[in-house]
Amino acid sequence: MCNYAGCSSCVQLKARRDSDPFTMASLHPNSGMSPLQPNHPNLQPHHSHQHEHGHEHHHHHNHAPPRRNSRWSFSSNEIVLNRLSEILAPFDATRGEASISEYPEDDLEHGPEMDTIPIAPPVPIKDEALYKAARDQHNQRNANPAATAAAGRIWRLPDELKGPARLRPLEQDEESSPTSEDSAADGMSRTREAVFVSTICMAQLCTQAGLGQTLAIIHVVGDTYGISNPRDLSWLIAGYTLTIGTFILIAGRLGDAYGYKRVFLAGFAWSALWAAVAGTAVWSTHVLFTVCRVLQGLGAAMCLPNAIALLGATYPPGKRKSMIFAIFAATAPCGSILGAAGGGVFALVWWPVAYWAFALVLCVVATVGYYVIPAVGHRYETPASFPAAIRDLDIPGAVLGVSALALVSFAFNQGPIAGWSEPYIWMALVVGALLMCIFIMVECHYAANPIIPLNALKPNVSFILGAVACGWGCFGIWSFYTWQFLQVIRRLSPLLTTAWFSPVVIVGILASLTTGLMLHRLGPPVVMTISMLAFTIGTLLIATCPDTQTYWGQTFVCMLVISWGMDMSFPAATLLLSDSVSRRHQGIAASLVSTVINYSISVGIGIGGTVEQQVTNGAVSYDAVLSGYRAALWTGVALASLGVIICLGFLFKMFLDNRPWTTWNWEWEFKRRNKKEVCCTCHGVLDGTTVGSHSPGHQMTSI
Predict the structure, then answer these.
(1) In whole numbers, what is the pLDDT of the chain averaged over residues?
(2) Among 171, 411, 604, 681, which is disulfide-ready with 177 (CB 3.0 to 4.6 Å)?
(3) pTM metric for this prediction
């Protein structure tokens, strides 16, 4: 625009820009051309306007680079960069350098502040050879392979300019980019794609199967080692979920550094190894068996985040990708029941066979995955040395975080067994809390590439993760003590108990398929609240169920209701958490939710065991055992009710913030999700959506 204050065209243009922050500079009526064209009046040192009254106003422009208002506007899917010429040719000394500074996360309408803007317009790239030369120059500027692979984009003008001049990104390596039209999935045959998706979904299925198979035959295993106290048996379940919850984020970071496929397959191989050793522990003690279960969970933690990353890197955004992720989520309830059924069947022969058969299945999946999983790119450069690994993988933060979580979970699960009066129980709890404080301090102030970017998390995250922790802590209590109630109180066999749990599979698949529609109609906050109500009602039904009632009474209804809590809470929490972090940190959303889910199951079992111990006080009579189970289940009801209260508080906060909560605010979310990460040096867009971490090597800013 010109500098003449009375120019009506400029005034109208300014009003248009201010009213629509997501529309770039329109054509000035008096210029008749795009602002990016070389002869546009705004780029000339002198131009004039002829107004209706016949007077001509002359405007002289300063030759220095003009200052820009901090309200730098961007289109929804494209970004206009007047500095494309910097990629094609070196800056002229008189034009200076443009710098970008990061703006507040909450500012959804304004882009980065441009201190200086080059006067010369960018040159449209119409020739393929010219484009290749520009790309080569871009790659030379980013010699770091990780930087080139992560950004690797330059900007060019569209072939046809319609309306406001806009720029769009061009992928550097279209074959390896998940957002390019030729994605890795497009190169697969239907058969290979079906096998590929099945292999990836086996990560979710086998993780839950590893939990279900032990839960179904836990008393059979306990009889082998002479263990009958449920509090002693709880470690066989809690140890497995503990390692899954504490190592998911670290496994995601390893996938970024060493390749998703490589870590994914290594996770299956590791799980197979320790499942086989767990079977041989029949000739040893329960200590070895428990250690094997703990280490087996480490393999599951390696598989889960990298399975999500492989799906995200293989499929471009769209309905196809959404359907694949829905299938991935639906395998969770199937895995738990299939594992329990397999464990019950093999226990009729000899329970170690269940673990050896499971190890064989894991080896077969790893072998098939080696051939069908495409070699998609990963976003970290593999550390060349141990100091580089310490810096890039945040090993100090990983050690602190894992140690803190492990000690706290150990205290809660060992306390009911040894008694809370033991000094080492309280010592473990205190040391774990101190290490957690140190971990938070290191991640906020000292880590170069933190595993969890705590500074990027908004206050809403505490509401979301708090509700998830309460709901899935309740689920841990429900799953463990419902099995105890049916097998110990109702005297059911492992196979019959599995049959009573089978409605969870059917309802779980139905819930997974309909949750997407509910999220669209109601919105994630409301769906999250409904899931907490499902946890509460389902646990309440089994807590008040008479011990002689028919299965088709409260037990059957409980199986129908609790499934909605499981399959609605995960996608709702993931979307809410994704909404509460910047695009750069989108990758931690699913990882944090998975971490909290598995860790809450482990801690929840320990809390339930503590309550049971206080109620029974060592008594082993029928009535005392039943009272202890009911007290633990009522604790689960209390946890789920607290989750409902947290969700209602979150809804009230959204109401105070004047944000819609009964329907999903798609317009607000659309603006929110189209913030991008741009390298200040090369202008490349950084994709920060991979699970686990973000790629280093660039000076990044949100736009």
Answers:
(1) 70
(2) 171
(3) 0.65
